[in-house]
Amino acid sequence: MEIYYPVDAITARLFKAIETINQKNLSLEQTTLEEYLSLFLTFFSDVSKVTGTSVDLAKARSKLFEYGFAILVSQHSGKLYTDPDVEGLMGLAFDRTLRALKL
Description:
Layout: H1 5-24, H2 30-51, H3 57-76, H4 84-100
């Protein structure tokens, strides 16, 4: 297994921040979703700096919503973030956005 320290460190920081959010509140709410959104945008920005890739954060935000964030609260409100549907949709939105940004 190869280690890409800067990206690995940024990813570890993202996971740690997600754990911190989940310790406060596991229920899907608009405010918590905004915290996740902020974390993901910070991750994209940080990775872009390390990789030398330009990232438009407004486009990244738009892509996250296009790929699933927009329906999270409307269709899954009150569910836990650990619910497979919520985790799956959030992961899918993150992964597709990452690919769309070519990071």
